[in-house]
Amino acid sequence: MALILNFNAAHRAKQLKQPIHAIEKLQNTPQGHKQAEALNQQIRQQWRDRGSASLKQQQGLMDQTRRVIKDSLGADHWSLDYIKFTTAEYTELNNLKQHRVAQRNEATQQLDNPSAIVAKAARLLDFMLKSVKLFCY
C-alpha cells in the first residue's frame, strides 16, 4: 500500500512539474501571454479528462500547480497572471465555501448533557490505559 501511495505521489509531482518546462520556454511578451493562457486551458482540460471536472475538484490541482510555479520560477513570475482561475470562477468557489459554512452554522445542535459525554470519554480513556498496561506487562 505504501508503495502505491509513493508511486501516486511521485506521479502527481511529475505531472505538476510538466507545465513548468513549458512555462520556462515562454517569454514575457504578448505572444507568451497568449501561449500561457492556452497552456492554462490545456492543463485544465487534462484535469477534466482525468475526472476532475468541477471547480471544487480542480481547486487543489490549481493550488498545487501555482505552488510549483512559485517554488520553481519565483513567487512573482509573470505566468501566475495566466495560470489561474478566472475571477468569476474564484467567486463561484468562494460562494460555495460560504454556502457550506452557512449550512454548517445553521445546522448546529446543542448537546443535551455535555458533562455526561465528558465523563464517558474519561471512563473510556481510563479503560484504554488499563488495557494497555495489562497488554504491555
How is this structure best described in words?
The protein is mainly α and 137 residues long. It contains five helices and no strands. Helix 1 (2-25) crosses helix 3. The radius of gyration is 24 Å and the shape is elongated. The two termini are 32 Å apart.
Layout of secondary structure:
Elements: H1 2-25, H2 30-49, H3 55-73, H4 87-106, H5 114-136
Number of helices: 5
Number of strands: 0
Query: Low-confidence runs (pLDDT<50, min 5 residues)?
Result: 1-7
Round the Cα radius of gyration to an integer and report it: 24 Å
Mean pLDDT: 87
Strand content: under 5%
Q: What general outline do the C-alpha atoms trace?
A: elongated
Structural class: mainly alpha
**Portion in helices:** over 70%
Question: What oligomeric state do these chains adopt?
Answer: single chain
Following the backbone from N to C, one meets helices and strands in this order, namely HHHHH
Distance from first to last alpha carbon: 32 Å
- Profile the largest sheet: none
Comma- or semicolon-separated keywords:
137 residues, mainly alpha, disordered N terminus
A few lines on this structure:
The chain has helices at residues 2-25, 30-49, 55-73, 87-106, 114-136. By secondary structure, it is mainly alpha-helical.
